[in-house]
Amino acid sequence: xxxxxxxxxxxxxxxxxxxxxxxxxxxxxxxxxxxxxxxxxxxxxxxxxxxxxxxxxxxxxxxxxxxxxxxxxxxxxxxxxxxxxxxxxxxxxxxxxxx
Length: 99
Hints:
By secondary structure, the protein is an alpha+beta fold. The protein is built from one helix and five strands, in the order βαββββ. Strands 1-2-3-4-5 form a five-stranded antiparallel sheet, with helices on one face. Strand 2 and strand 3 (about 50-60) form a beta hairpin. The relative contact order is 0.23. The model has no long low-confidence stretch (mean pLDDT about 90).
């Protein structure tokens, strides 16, 4: 159950979360000045605000991971996606936390 303002527990990535990653991949590459041959969502957590913040753990190659914060607006605003921030240099066992 979503709790307004709080970040939910980490869950395994879904096809919908992978689609979100696919849509923001170019922005992530531009933000980090890197190109990722691998970009696979592994897990995620959400935060309900006036829309949804997705905190996503993405495997970006080998044992390297990145954490993404992506905002999705509400339906009346077009369900637009906006990359808010990226944390690189993460590992598979790094928990997803608010950033």
